[in-house]
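Minutes, methods subgroup
Present: GH (chair), OT, SY

1. OT presented the first of two proteins processed in the latest run. Sequence and structure tokens recorded below as shown on screen.
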Amino acid sequence: MNFLTFRSRIIALLTILFLGSITYSYGQSATKPKEQNCYSVLVGKGASYDGSVMLAHNEDDFGDQLFNWIVVPKLAHNKNEKFTTLQGAKIAEPDTTYRYIWLDMPGMAFSDSYMNENGVTIVSNSCPSREDKPDLTSGGLTWELRQLMAQRAKSARHAVKIASQLISEFGYAASGRTYSIADPSEAWMLSVVNGKHFVALRIPDDHIAVIPNYYTITEVNLSDTANCIASPDLLTYAQNRGWYDPSKQGFNFREAYGNPDALNHPENIMRMWIGVNSLQTRQFSPEEPFPWSFKPSDQVTIEKLSTLLSNHYENTSFDHTNGYQTGNPHENDPSTVCATHNQYGFIAQLRNWMPTDVGCLWWIAPRRPCLQPFTPLYAGLTSFPERFSMYNYKEAIKHHFDDIESMRAVAPNHIYYDFFDLTAYGDSISYIKALRKRVSEKDNLFRTYLKKQEKFELETLALWVRDREAARKRLTEYSVEGIEKSAASSVETLKSLKN
């Protein structure tokens, strides 16, 4: 598929339709500490194969988990309406909050993912800091920070500004975290420290950035306000705490604010190593310092990112199973990118040359990306079937932190378990053989949707200009169809194992 030609055809089509009808808007440790959760890659629009900004993410969480698929509608708010944080702080609501897709992880404070109607996409990675004297107001912010960004942000840059204002006012009530925030034009990395310190950098358009579970930002130019947003005392505070000596060294955010245990943890180092080495020619050793961002050796594709999110160090000396042949890679080496505790993986493909409804989508693989196909989930979809969630969006917000003894007992028919049960079956020889077969089968479904993408989007765009609601209905049906096909295939694979 020639994606430059595809883009030109879409722009031409929309121009013709626009002129003839209506206007539109573009919108390696044996015991894994719980901090070692999640993995992300940000891709600038000049580094991707089709001019899209991309954000790839594996959501990693331990324990009894599932995730709900929820669409929160665009909402109007009363003049005096307030958003109440977990700690009780009151924040004024805007007149309107945006519609967004929410991957809700019940009970989890830092695990939800969002894509709003402007294509603003938000995920995060735990990145422990060394801060032990945090400045917090009204208890600080945790879970609600990304929700507030998703509700209010017109762009990734806007989301960073929203977050910076909130953190400056209330502080951040967790050790540390890096938020990956992308839209169809830009990608940003926002690293937050316990308390009221943070720094956000814009990923250069021709670069990519990999984030395991430590801060990766190094040098910071506070005067470059077009590409850097930071707390004004970022350097002076670090100097006062003895974390930075300007007479001996240049400022390095990662070294100044990062928790040394996280920075030196082999699982972080190895996952960073495989990400950097997978996407560019210059091959680093695990002992070398890695760049914060870098130019890829070739334009980054959806397929390359799907392979990375599925990675168990294949074709390296760290592959302990020889490509599934000598065991289950999740059991033999828990420090792989695709790991035992994956809950889902996705690749956001964000394109500014189409309306957001069609131009922005997640390629999503529930549970384990190495076993499940990535299928498209478009920003324009309006709802999910009942089996995709434990409750509606109002109940999801209300009950997010309920103490649930067993997720499965509460939602036994949830579609999540169609994917989960395959990964929980065991580690027998028959299972390993089935896994190897499954990998081939899931890639076939993924490729099918990739091949259909151009035709489907051209047809949907033509419909979108005439009838947006009909186009959104089509996007909804197509997105749900892919997930349900993947789920059915997973169930059939498990049946074959049991037989």
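2. SY then presented the second protein from the same run.
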Amino acid sequence: MDLNKVMIIGNVTRDPEAKTTPQGTNVTSFSIATNMVWTDKNGTKQEKAEFHNIVAWRKLAEICAQYLKKGSKIYLEGRLQTRSWDDPSGVKKYRTEIIAENMIMLDRAQGANNQSANFNTNSDTDSTQVEAPSDEEEINVDEIPF
């Protein structure tokens, strides 16, 4: 059994770039930064950012292009894919990307009851499910009687 699954939470580092293939399929690319913070053996706080190239297809590509912008915080699920090509001088180049399958916007949207939206696409079909939050009031943990 094999598994190729990626789950990350991070910030969009550049505005998404939307394109359409010659066959009419929508594709959007952008990148996400994930940060790691730790304390080294000397007690010094260390930070490191990792940058991930993201590619979304079809309906999810349209959604990413429409709603995401530089600085947006998102949760993203997908799979890793490495592609290769020869540059003009004949040197083989490689690029590893995350092919997006599910995206949840974590930013608090203005005018949307301060809730996030979940965008899920199945790569085998063109269908995309949008799970909008319900209109129920948010539960405050401090108000639970037990």
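Chair's summary of item 2: The radius of gyration is 19 Å.
Next meeting: continue with the remaining queue.
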